[in-house]
# Entry
Amino acid sequence: MAKQAAVLAVDSMSGSGLFQYVESFVENNIPYKIFSISDDKKIRTDSGVTILADDIIANLKGHENEYGALILACGDAISKFPKFVDDTEKQYNKDLVEVMKAFSAQDKIMAGHCGAGLLFDTFDIAHGKKVAVHPYVVPAINNCIATGAKSEIDGNIYTAQTEHTICQIIPPLIEALKK
# Structure
């Protein structure tokens, strides 16, 4: 049986990344659950599509052992990361950090695109590992190794530079989840 994936999404995100992960999971019989990084299950894409997530990040906390992977389907780090920094005291952002660290401590698969590598770097999740991040984010990487590649897989860390290169990490991610 395939490992279940916890997919994280934020309000006003680029839906393309989320839809690529979810569609691939559905096509390959990978169980998944979408968690909103918010105190509300309702999220919107930047194009206005409204999605009702399965749950909120607070309810993933303490249940990390039920999942084989954490997928940061948020993307759009250039506009979202400053908002995250401004809202670090919000409980859902504290929950995000705790969940990410719990998955990392269990050496579970962690994947994402665009700014995911920046979060992996900021929270010391992938210290010394190669990450693919959006070109604008490269100067902010301190603990990871931003390679400039379109995608990187370094151990349990799967990253894509943008939503346009997620397709490079999906096949090996699916393979790892099926093991």
